[in-house]
Design goal:
Layout: E1 18-21, E2 34-38, E3 43-50, E4 52-57, E5 60-65, E6 69-72, E7 78-81, E8 88-94, H1 106-117, E9 120-122, E10 125-126, H2 133-149, H3 154-171, E11 175-177
Antiparallel strand pairs: 1-8, 2-7, 3-6, 3-8, 4-5, 4-7, 6-10, 9-11
């Protein structure tokens, strides 16, 4: 990976590795409509919120329209172009291991660990109207609301919604990589 293209910006904090761009408090004064080629170890979810946005992810160019959702894997080169205020996008950047549990369960083995290790990844593009897209957009809207309010439990609400996105993508076959096995019920002896 080209070290010169690694984004230098920290996304969130060590205690809470999650960030939304552009900032919801309006602190980003430049209103950048061009995010040049870059990569970072974190995952990124990009939503097209208005108009048309051009994205290049892993050498493939996409023209996104309102409602489309894009995913950039960790260490995947990507850029975003949205010319003019009528074309808007939002990015959600987070460390994949942030979603893992300290007590492993079936979802940890089948989904979360492979996602954090890069053996499993989100489909790059889910277009408006495709299966799962509405659910993902609703979960992202929950994240935005929780982030804006910053009430106690905000971080847990964000994490729960991100886990919901993983679940929706698994349900609709929008995770790619090693073959996922159906979850087996673990029975405990009494």
């Amino acid at each position: 990976m080209d070290a010169a293209r690694r984004e230098k910006k920290e996304h969130g904090t060590l205690a809470f590795p999650f960030q939304i761009y552009p900032a919801l408090d309006g602190s980003e004064a430049d209103d950048s409509d061009f995010i040049p080629y870059h990569w970072h170890p974190e995952l990124e979810i990009i939503t097209v919120d208005a108009g048309h946005v051009s994205l290049t992810i892993a050498d493939h160019t996409y023209e996104g329209t309102h409602g489309d959702v894009f995913f950039a894997a960790g260490e995947e080169l990507h850029e975003i172009r949205a010319a003019g205020r009528e074309n808007q996008f939002r990015s959600f950047v987070f460390a994949a291991d942030f979603l893992q549990f300290s007590r492993a369960d079936q979802s940890e083995f089948a989904l979360l660990a492979p996602l954090a290790e890069g053996r499993l990844r989100f489909d790059t593009c889910i277009r408006a109207g495709e299966p799962g897209q509405n659910e993902i957009r609703a979960l992202l809207a929950q994240i935005v609301r929780a982030w804006q309010v910053q009430a106690p439990g905000c971080q847990l609400a964000v994490k729960a919604a991100l886990l919901g996105i993983v679940a929706v993508c698994a349900q609709y076959g929008r995770l790619v990589g090693h073959q996922m096995r159906r979850a087996r019920t673990i029975r405990r002896s009494s």
